[in-house]
Structure formats: C-alpha cells, structure tokens
Write a structure and sequence with these properties.
Length: 107
Amino acid sequence: MDNLLLKKDLTAEQLAMVQSELEKSQKNKVVMYLLWWFTGFLGGHRFYIGDVGYGIALLFLGWLTLFIWPFLDVFFIGKRLEQKTNELENELINKVIRYTKKSETVY
C-alpha cells in the first residue's frame, strides 16, 4: 500500500514516531555515492544499502565486466535507495500502527 495512504490515518504522535525512526535508520545518499566512487567495483555501495546479492555479484564479477557494470550502476543506485527508503518507511508505519493498537488494548 502507498505510504501516503497509510500515513493519512496516523496521529501527529504516530507520525513523529515514524519520522524519528526513519531519520535514524535511513541510509545517506552522499555516503552511498562516496562508497560507489571508492568501492564501486567491489560493490561497497550495494552492501551499504542492503542489496547483498548485488554486492556479492559486483565483488566477484565487477572487474570481469571491465568496470562497465559498476560504472552503469551509478545511474540505478539513486532510485534503489529511494525504493529501500520507501520500504523502510512502510515497515515503520506498520510497526507504529501495530504498537499503538497493542498499547490501546492493554489499557
């Protein structure tokens, strides 16, 4: 489900909880691009954003492609970071909803 639709029913306190956790957990775009610059052919940027499979593939095959794959990867990692951030936000929204529902039933 779209994160905007999920967030429209949240209270201000719940939104603050989601935003706080998202700021702590999301990956930094500058760090990711620096990792690509210095360790792109080793897949360091992919390991950083949590794409371990791609990271391992780059680690073992990046140099075999004459560094073409790591070079082209710079055009895809920005969008992938956005996807991972949206997935993280969705997960956090659902956790906050579950947490607040659970605490409401306790009282």
